[in-house]
């Protein structure tokens, strides 16, 4: 066996963000850049000799090269076996499923999720532990510390491993098993949902459209929706994964999933539409000419969970990220189950699920999931909805409006200001923090500020504390404005402004969210001085 120890020098910028390390492909292509980070992972996670690792990615540009490098480094670092998805492919939720199913030591997932791909696009890498979930903050901090002190990495000299056929080969002393990336995941879905009921719904003429956005979920959706559930061929669109996502932005929202939006708002629109992102963990849910916000979707799934086989016994509890609307809190209250508010990013849900405290989790950023895996899960959310629709036999719109009538409506919107100069974005946050003293108690028309703070979270399971997780402006009627800097961007800073207003009056539930939120938007811009401080009049994206 020919294992080389290669000398290297640290890069100073390998700090994992909200979901792993995300950088431009060109950054990853620098000599030693990927290798340094992978060695920093291996040096931080203390895998026992001979451990099994899961490996796969969303298939974006540079996926194949990175997989080969990681395989050779895993062999040189004493792993006994790697389970790798055929073609180097695993969606993020499927990787989580495989890690759990085969009780492996953990996995490495290659993805920059919803960020564009291609030679000029983004790439990313993260480590997930044996529970199938993203590494906790203590682990990502250890990885970052290693990356700043690294002086060498270990690499096996060997030929590339063929990955395009199911096979079992060896690489040095390590076994490499190429697995079907779809089947274990599809079987798990079949165990949670009533495929018979969904099949009958579809046979009865209920029309669906799923937009895979030329990303990883194409093959998963084809297998599950078309093959196993019998949706007519063509129900899954943009189903062929491409290394650059066809030049698109694989982010399932009303702006970027425009092909689907056109169909769902056109004449003769299908009954149900959905899309997922680059790595398959996000979802957008649409009815006929109707959009369900991710925060409402989480609340709706919680309220209807017992209609679905895998959740018939009820929910242990629910959790949402801090900026996500409090719609699910109202459902939790009615069900008399606990509701947790965590910082942004799926890694904070893992401890709660492992401890059996929550069953469903969600984020406003088109992420929903449950304890069936430890990642958010796009197709799972779609199937959950289809199962509910098959049981209730009502439209998406009717189900949502009935939900609002019962629980009230949390109007919600997020404004993203992307690619800001970092100093200007930090300046807005600093200014807001400095204003806390004068803001509390101030009234703006019918809104008066009750409190403001910088969100801090104490994990109820391990007691770890995460500070500085976003600025909250809380109003006396339950409305909120949240300001947060993104931790997934690769250029400059992205400032997110989250707006939420609660409305109990059914007579106002039909309002457009932008209309219902216009006063709050004005207040947000006023108190943050965002426009003057950043020179930006308009947000880049509104969701
Ligand atoms: C964004 C979302 C966050 C999500 C994260 C990863 O993070 O806001 O809710 O968990 O992306 O999603 P940020 O730090 O940019 O706001 V994925 O689908 O990109 O892995
Ligand atoms: Co994603």
From TrEMBL:
An individual GO BP term: carbohydrate metabolic process
Annotated Alpha-D-phosphohexomutase alpha/beta/alpha domain residues: 14-153, 184-286, 295-407
Catalytic class of the enzyme: isomerase
Requisite cofactors: Mg(2+)
InterPro entries xrefs: A-D-PHexomutase_a/b/a-I, A-D-PHexomutase_a/b/a-I/II/III, A-D-PHexomutase_a/b/a-II, A-D-PHexomutase_a/b/a-III, A-D-PHexomutase_C_sf, A-D-PHexomutase_CS, Alpha-D-phosphohexomutase_SF, PGM
MF terms in GO: magnesium ion binding; phosphoglucomutase activity
Alphabetical list of Pfam families matching this protein: PGM1_C_vert_fung (PF24947), PGM_PMM_I (PF02878), PGM_PMM_II (PF02879), PGM_PMM_III (PF02880)
Keywords assigned: Isomerase, Magnesium, Metal-binding, Phosphoprotein
Ranges of compositional bias, category Polar residues: 1-17
EC number: 5.4.2.2
Signal sequence annotation: none
UniProt-annotated stretches for the region Disordered: 1-20
PANTHER family with a match to the protein in the record: PHOSPHOGLUCOMUTASE (PTHR22573:SF2), PHOSPHOHEXOMUTASE FAMILY MEMBER (PTHR22573)
Protein name: phosphoglucomutase (alpha-D-glucose-1,6-bisphosphate-dependent)
Organism, as annotated: Sideroxyarcus emersonii
């Amino acid at each position: 066996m020919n294992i080389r120890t290669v000398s290297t020098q640290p890069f100073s910028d390998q700090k994992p963000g909200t979901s792993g390390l995300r950088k431009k492909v060109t950054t990853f292509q620098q000599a030693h850049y990927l290798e340094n980070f992978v060695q920093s992972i291996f040096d931080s996670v203390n895998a026992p000799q001979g451990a099994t690792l899961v490996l796969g990615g969303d298939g974006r540009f540079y996926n194949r090269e990175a997989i080969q490098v990681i395989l050779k480094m895993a062999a040189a670092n004493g792993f006994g076996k790697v389970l790798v998805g055929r073609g180097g492919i695993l969606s993020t939720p499927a990787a989580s499923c495989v890690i759990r199913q085969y009780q492996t030591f953990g996995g490495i997932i290659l993805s920059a999720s919803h960020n564009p791909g291609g030679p000029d696009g983004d790439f990313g890498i993260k480590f997930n532990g044996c529970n199938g979930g993203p590494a906790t903050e203590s682990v990502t901090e250890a990885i970052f510390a290693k990356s700043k002190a690294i002086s060498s990495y270990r690499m096996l000299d060997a030929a590339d491993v063929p990955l395009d056929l199911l096979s079992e080969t060896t690489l040095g002393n390590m076994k490499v098993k190429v697995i079907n990336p779809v089947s274990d995941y599809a079987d798990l879905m079949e165990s949670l949902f009533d495929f018979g009921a969904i099949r009958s719904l579809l046979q009865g003429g209920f029309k669906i459209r799923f937009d895979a956005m030329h990303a990883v979920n194409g093959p998963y959706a084809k297998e599950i929706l078309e093959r196993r559930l019998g949706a007519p061929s063509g129900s899954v669109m943009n189903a062929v994964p491409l290394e650059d996502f066809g030049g698109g932005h694989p982010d399932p929202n009303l702006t970027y999933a425009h092909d689907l939006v056109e169909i769902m708002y056109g004449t003769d629109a299908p009954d149900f539409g959905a899309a997922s992102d680059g790595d398959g963990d996000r979802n957008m849910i649409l009815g006929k000419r109707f959009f369900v916000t991710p925060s409402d979707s989480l609340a709706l799934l919680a309220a209807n969970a017992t209609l679905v086989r895998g959740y018939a016994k009820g929910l242990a509890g629910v959790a949402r990220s801090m900026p996500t609307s409090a719609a699910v809190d109202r459902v939790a209250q009615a069900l008399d189950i606990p509701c947790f508010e965590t910082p942004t990013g799926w890694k904070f849900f893992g401890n709660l699920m492992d401890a059996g405290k929550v069953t469903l989790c969600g984020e406003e950023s088109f992420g929903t999931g449950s304890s069936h895996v430890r990642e958010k899960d796009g197709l799972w959310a779609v199937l959950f909805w289809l199962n509910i629709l098959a049981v209730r036999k009502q439209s998406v719109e009717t189900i949502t409006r009935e939900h609002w009538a019962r629980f009230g409506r949390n109007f919600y919107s997020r404004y993203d200001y992307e690619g800001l100069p970092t100093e200007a974005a930090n300046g807005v946050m600093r200014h807001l923090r400095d204003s806390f003293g004068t803001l509390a108690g101030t009234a703006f028309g019918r809104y008066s500020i009750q409190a403001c703070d910088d969100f801090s979270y104490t994990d109820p399971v391990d007691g770890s504390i995460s500070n500085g997780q976003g600025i909250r402006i809380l109003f006396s009627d339950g409305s909120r404005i949240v300001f947060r800097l993104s931790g997934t961007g690769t250029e400059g800073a992205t400032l997110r402004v989250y707006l939420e207003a609660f409305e109990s009056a059914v007579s106002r539930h039909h309002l457009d969210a932008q209309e219902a939120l216009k006063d709050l938007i004005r207040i947000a811009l006023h108190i943050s001085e965002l426009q003057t401080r950043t020179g930006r009049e308009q947000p880049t994206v509104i969701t």
